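Deliverable D2.4 — example input (structure tokens):
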């Protein structure tokens, strides 16, 4: 079963000074910007059909703020939509829709004639801290190749000058992705003793544990689902096989001012539908340059190890402090008084 994202019929179909042609999902107007002339470039329209999750209520990490709620047939795990077009000149146009439940049209100007590759992707940014906005999500999308929670296969269309090219209906399928990052990708001044944490998630099938490969600074910490020392890979919740949590706590803190590079891959196997994978996703964060606070680790000392004070003329007398417990009196018994 799939959900079709429909454009409301009330959307205005033209704007002064630019071309905008509505479609069931999104609009790409390849206008020349000269008051509506389309002689130099073409336009593109399409429908996006979102695959339905095979769970009625996909789980989220308990610590994640749910800034969006399911509505308008957009999958719950899609909070940002990207439409990506690679034109005939190999220029990549990326348009982000940060409120996809309210805004269902986009505009890409000046698409040159010739073949264009079109993709539709959905991302889940519910892992961002409460209060984060579009700027934080955009920065991550532009800096890192975040795995999308939903993605279409690339399709090729022919852009014709002065004409509207209909790309038809594009299926946007659920993919395994990564969420719940601690620290966040690109974060700086991270305390050196902070463990690495994230979760694999999926709306279709389950993450195949033996497909998981993770390295930290080039050191393999999970190989074919088997953890090395300091790493832990488990279901986040026994009743939620769609969430697989990873944590790594190295035996020694990271170095001051060190860039920590993480690489991860995983797959979902769907039988006859094939395999859907995260292919070597990479991100980094930077540790603080500050040294860790000194720990109160005492020097190993045996019992009563205070060195006795040397006092001249008392070499054979019992010192006031000795290396082993002794009575407070002198080493030899001396009566306090003699009987007459």
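Example output (designed residues):
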């Amino acid at each position: 079963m799939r959900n079709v994202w429909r454009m409301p019929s009330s959307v205005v179909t033209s704007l002064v000074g630019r071309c905008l042609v509505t479609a069931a999902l999104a609009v790409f107007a390849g206008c020349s910007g000269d008051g509506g002339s389309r002689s130099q470039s073409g336009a593109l329209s399409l429908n996006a059909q979102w695959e339905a999750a095979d769970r009625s209520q996909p789980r989220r990490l308990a610590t994640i703020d749910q800034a969006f709620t399911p509505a308008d047939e957009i999958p719950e795990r899609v909070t940002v939509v990207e439409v990506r077009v690679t034109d005939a000149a190999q220029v990549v146009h990326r348009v982000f829709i940060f409120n996809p439940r309210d805004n269902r049209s986009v505009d890409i100007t000046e698409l040159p004639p010739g073949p264009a590759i079109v993709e539709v992707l959905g991302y889940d940014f519910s892992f961002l801290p409460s209060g984060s906005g579009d700027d934080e999500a955009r920065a991550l999308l532009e800096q890192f190749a975040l795995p999308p929670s939903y993605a279409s296969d690339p399709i090729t269309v022919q852009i014709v000058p002065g004409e509207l090219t209909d790309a038809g209906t594009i299926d946007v399928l659920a993919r395994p992705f990564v969420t719940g990052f601690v620290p966040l990708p690109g974060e700086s001044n991270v305390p050196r003793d902070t463990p690495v944490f994230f979760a694999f998630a999926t709306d279709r099938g389950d993450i195949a544990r033996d497909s998981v490969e993770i390295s930290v600074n080039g050191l393999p910490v999970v190989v074919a689902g088997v953890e090395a020392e300091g790493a832990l890979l488990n279901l986040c919740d026994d009743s939620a096989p769609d969430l697989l949590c990873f944590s790594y706590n190295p035996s020694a803190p990271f170095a001051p001012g060190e860039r920590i590079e993480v690489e991860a891959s995983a797959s979902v196997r769907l039988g006859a539908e094939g395999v859907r994978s995260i292919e070597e996703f990479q991100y980094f964060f930077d540790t603080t340059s500050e040294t860790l606070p000194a720990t109160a680790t005492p020097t190993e000392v045996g019992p009563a190890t205070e060195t006795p004070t040397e006092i001249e003329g008392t070499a054979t007398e019992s010192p006031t402090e000795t290396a082993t417990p002794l009575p407070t009196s002198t080493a030899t018994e001396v009566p306090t008084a003699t009987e007459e």
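Confidence is low (pLDDT under 50) at residues 1-38, 62-72, 318-340.
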